[in-house]
Amino acid sequence: MTDAATARRSRLTPERAAELYEAVLDLLREVGYDALTMDAVAARTRSSKATLYRQWGGKAELVARAIRHGKPGRISDVDTGSLRGDFHAVVGHEDDCAMEQNSALMRGLAMAVHNNPDLLTAFREHLVEPEMSALRAMVVRAVDRGEVAPDNPALPFVVHMMIGAFATRALVDEQPPTQAFLRSYIDAVVLPALGVPVS
Predict the structure, then answer these.
(1) What three-state secondary structure class fits 16?
(2) 33-77 per-position pLDDT tens digit
(3) What is the rounded distance in angstroms from the CA atom of residue 40 to the CA atom of residue 95?
(4) Most buried among 125, 135, 146, 164, by the most CB within 10 A?
(5) Per-residue buried b or exposed e for 148-172, using 16+ beta carbons within 10 Å of the residue's own CB
(6) How far, in Å, CA of 75 to CA of 60, rounded?
(7) Are the C-beta atoms of residues 103 and 170 closer than 8 Å to each other?
């Protein structure tokens, strides 16, 4: 991002930006991505559309940043000293209620992401890539510590396993993901695949 763009985007206070993000998330839950408009966001937040466009450029960027803002903490900050501890700490970032809300929100956005190149780009930049990079860093640390063999064939699939468990829980079991389910999955599937003992 250029210095001019950074300066332009820094005009809102963090508190005001947080209010806008919360309003965007509320609207997403109410009407979905396709029906969400910048007019509706402006009306809900008592903002001008010009301010919204100046700050975020468009709906896709605003939505991706709102979802990123709504996620508690950054998994890149997690470093417990063990891979199991790191993965369990990641799961602990959200309680079951927040996980259920976010799972429903992401299911609702799945089709929009694949049908909207701008939204896909914004999602990859603000959500997918940072989380994949953080998960990969955890695994690299585990390899460096000797917890995981560097030639383990499951290494390229860790991100798929972690995201897959969250994303498919509702589809397969018709239940939301929970901390207990994800921790059990990590211990029964992910860590054994990597050769990491769970006890």
Answers:
(1) helix
(2) 889 999 999 999 999 999 899 999 999 999 999 988 877 667 888
(3) 30
(4) 135
(5) beeebebbeebbebbeebbbebbee
(6) 23
(7) yes
